[in-house]
Write a structure and sequence with these properties.
CATH topology: 2,3-Dihydroxybiphenyl 1,2-Dioxygenase, domain 1
Radius of gyration: 16 Å
Number of domains: 1
Order of helices and strands: HEHEEEEHEEEHH
Oligomer: single chain
CATH class: Alpha Beta
CATH architecture: Roll
CATH superfamily: 2,3-Dihydroxybiphenyl 1,2-Dioxygenase, domain 1
Helix content: 25-40%
């Protein structure tokens, strides 16, 4: 309950345009909290049967499922990985109408992205970065013209989720020096 309130507050605050700037981030009224899980079947059963959320999409080829919550516009993304690290594997997907334009805008504000924008064909474009504390964030939105395969996306996501503590610690050290938090 506290996490849902925090995320809702975070998205509401983040959608306000900073004073003195002409460009604004084109937010959509949606957010997805992504969790790493050891067993997708077990996780889907928990969220749908125990918490009574609704399964809205399941992609066995990506070992991934979307779960609608009771908060309009807030979804959970469940991704199966070999060794989940609890909340260390949570990624806040921030829904925007144009990932490429928003990425350029945020880069102009000093945000360093982790690699190229990844595209899941027919679904979504994803651009990952971190906050100053190393918390994983990701722009998610409409598809650009270029693409990376779904298998590439899953492989990169799984590789990144194997050692989150090392990345977070390195990101915090780098952020403290004012440097790059990417991997």
């Amino acid at each position: 309950m506290h996490i849902v309130r925090f995320v809702t507050l975070f998205v509401a605050i983040a959608s306000a345009a900073p004073s003195g700037q002409n460009a604004v981030v084109p937010y959509r009224p949606e957010a997805t909290l992504q969790f790493s899980v050891a067993n997708l079947d077990r996780a889907v059963e928990f969220y749908t049967k125990v918490l009574e959320y609704k399964l809205t999409e399941r992609r066995d080829d990506l070992k991934f499922a979307h779960i609608a919550t009771n908060v309009p516009g807030l979804e959970l993304g469940l991704g199966e990985v070999a060794e989940p690290k609890g909340t260390a594997g949570v990624i806040l997907n921030i829904s925007v109408t144009d990932v490429a334009a928003t990425r350029k805008l945020l880069e102009s504000r000093g945000v360093t992205f982790k690699g190229e924008t990844v595209v899941i064909p027919g679904k979504v474009a994803l651009a990952g970065f971190a906050d100053p504390d190393g918390n994983a964030l990701r722009l998610a939105g409409h598809l650009p013209s270029s693409s990376v395969t779904a298998a590439d996306c899953h492989r990169r996501w799984a590789r990144r989720s194997r050692a989150p503590a090392r990345r977070v610690a390195a990101g915090r050290r780098s952020a403290a020096r004012g440097g790059d938090t990417g991997d």
